[in-house]
Specification:
Blueprint (H helix, E strand, L loop, with lengths): L4 H13 L3 E3 L2 E7 L5 E11 L3 E3 L2 H8 L6 E4 L3 E6 L2 E6 L20 E5 L1 H14 L3 E6 L4 E7 L9 E7 L5 E6 L10 E6 L3 E6 L4 E6 L4
Antiparallel strand pairs: 1-4, 2-3, 3-15, 5-6, 6-7, 8-13, 9-10, 9-12, 10-11, 13-14, 14-15
């Protein structure tokens, strides 16, 4: 089989969440960070017939990059990458050493939801980088208007940047994220946030979603 650009895009994104990956038979790929605070699930155009584990996903993707458009043959212990007269054998990892979601994440009751556009997310990421701050907070005012703000929670005089993202949330609440945990594929997202300590980011055009743990208040 040949991997579609969509599947490659998902794998590249997953490599930023966890360096290893267990791919199960079918067309759904899930990953979980080593800290178990990020879980991502994507439905991809390609269907895998064999379950296999990759210990170093970046290395696997780099091996694929040695070819322009390789054919992948998934065997019991390895995958063969080939194109023309060139081929490469890449051995699987032991699944027991790979961090992977064991159960499906169920989103609890939602206290706030909004649409996070790619443009807004890019602004937030840029502001966090420019100001050198690690935190993002979703703040719901007394009137239900929601703002995303980046700052350093440990510094009372930290520079900060905020942008309005919607209205209708439960008033007078704050939800905290680490900017470094927002490892999202490009696109617009529906974001749901719960005071149970978890958030869900659902891509509006691609079949991918992320569950990201909130930071303690």
């Amino acid at each position: 089989m040949k991997l579609s650009n969509e599947t490659r895009e998902v794998l590249k994104n997953y490599s930023t969440i966890n360096s290893n990956l267990l791919v199960k038979a079918g067309n759904t790929i899930a990953t979980m960070s080593q800290m178990k605070n990020i879980v991502a699930t994507a439905t991809v155009p390609d269907t895998f017939e064999t379950e296999f584990a990759i210990y170093d996903l970046n290395e696997f993707l780099s091996a694929m990059s040695l070819f322009t458009d390789p054919e992948l043959t998934f065997n019991d212990q390895s995958v063969r990458m080939s194109q023309g007269s060139t081929d490469l054998t890449y051995f699987y990892s032991d699944p027991s050493v790979v961090t992977t979601p064991k159960t499906e994440v169920v989103m609890p009751s939602v206290n706030a939801s909004f649409t996070l556009t790619q443009s807004t997310f890019t602004q937030v990421q840029k502001a966090a980088a420019v100001l050198g701050v690690p935190d993002m907070v979703l703040e719901v005012g007394h009137d239900g208007i929601m703002d995303l703000r980046v700052s350093d929670r440990k510094n009372d005089t930290s520079n900060n940047f905020s942008i309005e993202v919607g209205e209708g949330g439960s008033p007078n609440q704050k939800f905290y994220f680490k900017v470094e945990n927002l490892k999202l594929l490009n696109g617009d997202y529906n974001v749901e946030v719960s005071d149970k300590g978890i958030s869900k980011f659902t891509n509006l055009t691609k079949k991918v979603e992320y569950f990201i743990a909130l930071e303690a208040a």
